[in-house]
Specification:
The structure holds 2 protein chains of 2 kinds. By secondary structure, chain A is mainly α. In chain A, 73% of the residues lie in helices and 0% in strands. Chain A has 10 helices and no strands. Chain B has a domain of 227 residues. In chain B, strand 5 and strand 6 form a beta hairpin. The chains are: A mainly alpha, B mainly alpha. Chains A and B meet through helix 9 of A and helix 13 of B.
Chain lengths: 260, 518
């Protein structure tokens, strides 16, 4: 904030100041709602202190939370400057190619930042110290409260913009359409064609022609047999008649050929 | 000892088949005996592979194939029983002989027809090893086809019992019958062209020996069968490439994979994803690139495009799954896409440093994917045995019920995802680093696939382990057992070891890559 003010970037300075105010506000809102006032639920009434394994690290962190910034207090700071070694500027600045100058001290950023910090804390406490179930700012903020509560609907936006299309691309397009319909469909059509071809060969060639030929041989033999068996009458007179006919026929043929 | 080291490859190759025959002679009522005997017999080729590994001279200065053995087979057509390894085949042999005992140990929960199951498994192992070890084209093809038959029966007889697939006109078949049939016929259809091309090579060159063909075939000029040599070579190249592309699988020839992997029994899926896919990639590296360097360079962009499509659509389809096993199956399509991308990059820019890096990455990815997908399929099998469902929506919040399983699932998933520190990252990085200067656009597009890889892996883990506990499973789940952890243990160790220090494997792979492609 000091740098922004010192270099004349007033818009940045104001934005930072407002952000600091809101930060203090929501911090105090959180502390007030959680720790101050009357307990709002059964569980809250019976809450006990955390175990040492939780509070000890928090203690360490608290020390740093409070005091870590002190290493950055520049020399020329009124009152506090020079009390503690302010080595941070040199520490970071020394690593940069061009070691930047510390901005000259001016009272306005100091007053504003302290003001917004303390003011934010106070505001938070004032607004929330008597809060019941509903957030006291819900009605005054109206629609904005809903927007903030739903995190500016970013999650819903990402979901509809990226997640759902990705799912449709994955399941609908790549798997169900490309793989199952297009590629497998083509494969199934090849298989179907193979099956049809095989059926045609079976039903129009194999069965009638090849099998049929074999069957025909058998049935022809049978019908010839049925026909020829009529010669076998069982009557000796007929057999003798045939013998006589053949004998005379043979004799006749022989005589004819001899006479030629 | 000398006898063993002299014939080590033949021993590695045939010991599983002999083991299978021994298993068939055991009494089938004594299930424990059959299982333990199969496991013990499958450890023999593994130990022999380790012997070969430590006796392997990995310095690139010594060129050619080690432990060569050649015996006359069909002298009339100049085809011999010729075995040999270089760094590429030895790493694949190690993968095979490592995964086979793991898969057999994983199959201890199979209850029906155990003898046939174990015998088929061991016969399958011989088929796979034969492809990696053979240095003769006819022998290669024989083992290539031989590996299909046991797998068909494993899927058809011991695959998932439920599930149906609708064909056309309302005709329905059981899912495992559909999957096994599709797998076998699809792969065989691709192999038709391979067989014809092999025959043509043998007739024209007068020999089927790979080493002789590598010398004579690329430099062939003139005309053949009334066509120019270039035309004949292009047709033969595509015949080879299609056969291997179906096996890898390269998009769009990949649709047999989700069906076969999903319906196969757990151990069958481990071997399918772990080794059988690598047969296709191995075919590319061993045969297509050395025999057709010019055509490979010419059509490499096509291959790279298809590889990128595999990476992207494999990841997308995986993300859209509700069946965990099918999700892992599509992840195989995704990971093998990286292998093919590396191969395409190496084919396009042979001899450059990036090509060597890409090819090293591709072969390492073959090994790593074998490890991680075997682990993933096994873990899915573990949860399936307990819950009898693979539906991601049926679980939820199982982590407190099965913490050890959950931890192992997350570990294997991270390896599959390519987390730095685990093996998947090393190989994927090498492929991307190698392919970037060669096929910048394709590599950049494949990052979309990598993005969705993270999505589907996390979807799998989150649906299973995280979120609110699905009350249905409370009290009905037992954690992963000691036997099951034992199956995973070597795979997990390798995942971490290769992720932190892959040099021991890369040096062996590099020997082959530098030796073959300069």
């Amino acid at each position: 904030m000091a740098d922004a003010f010192g270099n004349g970037h007033l818009l940045v300075f104001i934005t930072l100041a407002v952000a600091a105010l809101l930060t203090a506000f929501y911090t105090m809102r959180q502390i007030t709602l959680t720790f101050l006032g009357a307990p709002r639920t059964q569980a809250a009434e019976h809450a006990s202190e955390s175990v040492r394994t939780m509070t000890a690290p928090l203690l360490v962190l608290a020390v740093f939370a409070i005091g870590a910034g002190w290493v950055g207090i520049p020399e020329h700071f009124p009152g506090l400057g020079g009390l503690l070694p302010g080595w941070f500027h040199e520490f970071v600045g020394g690593t940069l190619v061009a070691n930047p100058e510390a901005v000259a001290f001016s009272i306005e950023p100091l007053l504003v930042s302290v003001g917004v910090a303390l003011g934010g804390l106070t505001l938070g406490w004032l607004v929330y110290r008597k809060a019941a179930e509903a957030d006291p700012l819900r009605k005054p903020l109206g629609a904005i409260y809903g927007l903030l509560e739903n995190k500016y609907y970013f999650d819903e936006l990402y979901d509809s913009l990226f997640v759902q299309p990705a799912k449709r691309l994955a399941e609908g397009f790549s798997y169900m359409f490309l793989d199952r319909q297009v590629i497998d469909g083509a494969l199934h059509r090849v298989a179907q064609a193979g099956l049809s071809l095989g059926s045609i060969f079976r039903n129009y060639f194999d069965a009638p022609v090849v099998n049929g030929f074999g069957d025909l041989t058998g049935s022809l033999t049978q019908s010839f047999g049925r026909l020829l068996r009529k010669v076998q009458t069982g009557q000796v007179q007929q057999y003798l008649l045939f013998v006589a006919l053949l004998a005379f026929g043979g004799l006749f043929y022989y005589l004819l050929s001899v006479l030629q | 000892m000398q006898l063993i080291t002299d014939n080590i490859l033949a021993l590695i190759l045939f010991s599983p088949l002999l083991g299978g025959l021994i298993v068939m002679l055991l009494p089938s009522e004594n299930k424990d005996l059959v299982r333990r005997a199969a496991l013990a017999l499958s450890l023999i080729p593994f130990i022999l592979t380790l012997v070969a590994w430590f006796g392997f001279n990995a310095s690139p200065e010594v060129d050619g194939f080690r432990f060569q053995q050649q015996v006359a087979w069909y002298p009339a057509i100049n085809s011999s029983f010729h075995l040999g390894v270089d760094g590429l085949s030895l790493s694949m042999v190690l993968l095979t002989t490592l995964l086979a005992p793991a898969a057999i140990l994983a199959s201890f929960s199979v209850e029906e027809k155990i003898r046939s199951y174990m015998a088929l498994f061991l016969a399958l192992e011989t088929g796979m090893l034969g492809v990696f070890l053979s240095l003769d084209l006819l022998l290669f093809f024989a083992f290539w086809e031989l590996g299909l038959v046991p797998m068909y029966f494993l899927i058809d007889q011991w695959g998932s019992k439920t599930g149906e697939r609708e064909l056309w006109s309302g005709m329905k078949v059981s899912a495992r019958r559909y999957a096994s049939f599709k797998f076998m016929v699809y792969t065989m259809a691709g192999s038709l062209g391979l067989l014809l091309a092999i025959q043509m090579l043998g007739v024209v060159s007068g020999t089927f020996d790979m080493l002789a063909l590598f010398q004579s075939w690329p430099g062939l000029t003139g005309s053949l069968f009334g066509l120019s040599v270039e035309t004949v070579k292009a047709v033969a190249f595509w015949a080879f490439a299609i056969a291997f592309a179906i096996k890898v699988p390269v998009w769009p020839f990949h649709t047999w994979l989700p069906d076969a992997h999903t319906e196969a029994p757990t151990a069958g899926s481990m071997i399918l994803a772990g080794v059988l896919l690598k047969l296709g990639a191995y075919g590319f590296l061993r045969l297509v690139l050395p025999l057709y360097p010019a055509e490979a360079e010419q059509y490499a962009p096509v291959l790279a495009l298809l590889a990128t499509a595999a990476i992207i659509f494999g990841a997308l389809s995986a993300y859209g799954q509700t069946d965990f096993k099918r999700l892992v199956a599509y992840s195989s399509v995704n990971h093998m896409g990286f292998v093919v991308l590396g191969i395409a990059a190496a084919a396009f820019a042979t001899g450059t440093e990036s090509a060597t890096i890409a090819l090293n990455g591709a072969v390492l990815q073959m090994f790593n994917h074998g490890i991680s997908s075997a682990a993933m399929f096994f873990l899915v099998g573990v949860i399936y045995e307990r819950t009898h469902t693979r539906d991601l929506g049926a679980w939820g919040g199982l982590f407190p019920l099965v913490p050890v399983f959950g931890g192992l699932l997350i570990f294997s998933s991270m390896s599959s995802l390519g987390l730095p520190g685990l093996n998947g990252f090393v190989s994927e990085f090498l492929v991307v680093r190698g392919a970037w200067p060669i096929f910048t656009l394709f590599t950049a597009l494949s990052m979309i696939g990598l993005f969705f890889t993270g999505a589907y892996i996390l979807k799998g883990i989150a649906s299973t382990l995280h979120g609110p506990l699905n009350e249905k499973w409370k009290g009905h789940l037992t954690d992963i057992s000691r036997r099951e952890v034992l199956v995973l243990a070597p795979l997990l160790v390798l995942m971490l070891w290769l992720g932190l220090w892959p040099a021991w494997l890369l040096s062996v792979i590099n020997q082959a890559v530098v030796g073959l492609f300069g």
